[in-house]
Amino acid sequence: MCATCGCGQKDHSHNHEHTHHHGHGHGEGHAHPHPSGAGGRTISLERDILEKNQLLAERNRGWFEGRGILAVNLMSGPGAGKTTLLIRTLGELNGRISVIEGDQATSLDAERLSKSGAKVTQINTGPGCHLDAEMVARGLKELLPPPGSIVMIENVGNLICPALFDLGEGARVVLFSITEGEDKPLKYPHMFRAADLVILNKIDLLPHLDFDADLAEENARRVNPEIGVIRLSATRGDGLDEWRRWILDRLPIREHDRA
Amino acid sequence: MHELGITENIVAIVRDHARGQPVTRVSVEIGRLAAVSAEALHFCFDACTRGTELENARLEIIDVPGARTCRDCGRETNADHLPAPCPCGSWNTLTTRGMDLRVKEMEIA
């Protein structure tokens, strides 16, 4: 038996042409030694660059799971209506939601949300353009959400960076508004690929805009065939029922499981 | 500009192993579909390594091509950007390669 491929034939070659080569040229002249053994010592690391965040995210996930809490990572570009949607959501699910509010600066959104009576913790990321798992862990210590509740994590308004950072959430939701154009999912594919649900917001403006909502949905599914879609107007209230059901369906401890 | 955070992670992983010894080379694998810019990494690397064991280290970025499998025709084909339909026309694809963000190795003096 051939020891390389395990087939019955004894003598056959496993070599094949390798027509390109990986050049080791230096366009710009710079000197460095190419030693093998002499001086430099190569150490293999093979470590995931985001492993620290990943580990902390898993810790958060366990924290949520142990308490039967649903954590939702809510992401969008600036101005898509995250905070307005949150205020409406707090109204729909009164007393069951607390919020971790991420912004680069100010506590304006936290103040807006606090008026509804919900517990809100503000995290300012400063130079950072996204929330990470450590910030969320810090926020949770302050927020102390009760078991069986919902934690809404409003990420920094940015359609690029938050896609890469797992927070330990149970669901990822990306919001985009119809004033942004149907091609948003194609332009920011990483964000839409990482999401469980896309909310198409501000649909009350449809009669005034040249926006093809079906095309927007199709574009989102091109990037992520499994993504769910809800058309919604946070100001007028369309789609809020569906959104509330979507949240409640994902609660680790459902109503009928209790008692 | 998440490359700053990415670079801080690279530097932390390497410093963890260097323990004060000067590092001459750091090699990382970056997938073409990982949404990380090599140019920005080089820029951040210079800033993040100042005053550390990595100050004179060269950052070597190994480019990992992307690929996806079509859920309709079953073929795996190369893809260097997202989103892109399978040559059969289907958009129903699963990314299989090119998401890598990995510190591969380092060289100490």
What tags apply to this protein structure?
heterodimer; A: 259 residues; alpha/beta; Rossmann fold; 8 helices; 8 strands; B: 109 residues; alpha+beta; three-stranded mixed β-sheet; three-stranded antiparallel β-sheet; 2 helices; elongated
Explained architecture:
The complex is a heterodimer of chains A (259) and B (109). Chain A has 259 residues and is an alpha/beta fold. Helices cover 29% and strands 19% of the residues of chain A. In chain A, strands 4-3-5-2-6-7-8 form a 7-stranded parallel β-sheet, with helices on both faces. In chain B, the strands form 2 sheets. A 3-stranded mixed β-sheet of chain B has the order 2-1-6, covered by helices on one side. A 3-stranded antiparallel β-sheet of chain B has the order 4-3-5, with no helix packed on it. In chain B, 26% of the residues lie in helices and 33% in strands. Chain B has 109 residues and is of the alpha+beta class. Classes of the chains: A alpha/beta (259), B alpha+beta (109). The interface between A and B is medium-sized, with 34 and 34 residues. Strand 1 of chain A pairs antiparallel with strand 6 of chain B, so a sheet runs across the interface.
Report low-confidence residues of chain B grouped into runs of 5 or more: none
Largest interface: A-B, 34 and 34 residues
Cα-to-Cα separation, first versus last residue of chain A: 64 Å
Name of the CATH architecture of chain A: 3-Layer(aba) Sandwich
User: What is the percentage of strand-forming residues of chain B?
Assistant: 25-35%
What number of structural domains do the residues of chain A give?
1
Which fold does the CATH topology of chain A refer to? Rossmann fold
Shape of chain B: elongated
Q: Any idea what the shape of chain A is?
A: globular
Look at the helices and sheets of chain A and give the structural class. alpha/beta
Q: What is the count of helical runs of chain A? A: 8
CATH superfamily of chain A: P-loop containing nucleotide triphosphate hydrolases
